């Protein structure tokens, strides 16, 4: 999707220049964060800013057109995390060592599973970020993302 500079800037600012799924910051990843349709256009989603979020390439790739996934704890299919309608810290937390994203709710667990948020590479990279003092991110400024 091609987005205007003004829309991209709005989405970036609202997200604090972080992937809204794994919270990776633009400064720490090799590719440019991508504007993602939370509800894909193929499933009736629109280009309205209320349906757009910022995603790293891996999260965007794994999410693709998914809007739901299996919560492996309950074996139920549930909607995955929606950054415009939900707060990250209500559905996820960081492991004690800061390298893994823990799903706190069925939505959180399904999102961790669907987007492979704890894939081997992500854990290795986060471990390096923790050692550098860059990770995990503070969540206090994420409260304003839905405004």
Give a quick precis of the structure.
By secondary structure, this protein is α+β, with helices and mostly antiparallel strands. Helices cover 30% and strands 15% of the residues. A two-stranded antiparallel sheet has the order 1-2. The chain has a two-stranded antiparallel sheet with strand order 3-4. Strands 5-6 form a two-stranded antiparallel sheet.
Explain how this protein is built:
The protein has 147 residues and is an alpha+beta fold. The chain has one domain (5-135). The chain is built from 5 helices and 6 strands. It has helices at residues 5-15, 57-63, 88-91, 106-114, 120-132, and strands at 34-37, 52-55, 68-71, 76-79, 92-94, 101-103. It has a two-stranded antiparallel ribbon. Strand 5 (92-94) and strand 6 (101-103) form a beta hairpin. It is globular.
Tags for this model:
single chain; 147 residues
Q: How many extended strands?
A: 6
Q: Could you tell me the mean pLDDT?
A: 93
Overall spatial form: globular
Physical arrangement of strands within the biggest beta sheet: 1-2
Low-confidence stretches: 140-147
Report on the biggest sheet: 2 strands, antiparallel
Number of structurally distinct domains? 1
Helix content: 25-40%
Order of helices and strands: HEEHEEHEEHH
From the N-terminal CA to the C-terminal CA, the straight-line distance is 23 Å
Report the β-strand fraction as a percent range.
5-15%
Q: What structural class results from the helix and strand content? A: alpha+beta
- Rounded to an integer in angstroms, the radius of gyration calculated over CA atoms is 14 Å
- The helix count comes to 5
């Amino acid at each position: 999707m091609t987005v205007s500079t003004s829309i991209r800037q709005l989405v970036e600012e609202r997200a604090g220049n972080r992937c809204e799924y794994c919270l990776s910051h633009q400064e720490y990843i090799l590719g440019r964060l991508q504007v993602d349709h939370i509800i894909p256009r193929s499933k009736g989603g629109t280009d309205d800013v209320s349906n757009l979020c910022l995603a790293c390439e891996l999260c965007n790739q794994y999410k693709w057109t998914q809007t739901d996934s299996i919560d492996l704890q309950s074996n139920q299919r549930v909607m995955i995390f929606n950054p415009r309608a939900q707060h990250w810290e209500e559905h996820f937390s960081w492991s004690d060592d800061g390298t893994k994203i823990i799903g706190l709710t069925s939505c959180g667990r399904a999102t961790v599973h669907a987007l492979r948020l704890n894939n081997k590479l992500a854990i290795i990279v986060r471990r390096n970020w923790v050692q550098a003092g860059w990770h995990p991110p503070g969540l206090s400024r994420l409260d304003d993302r839905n405004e």
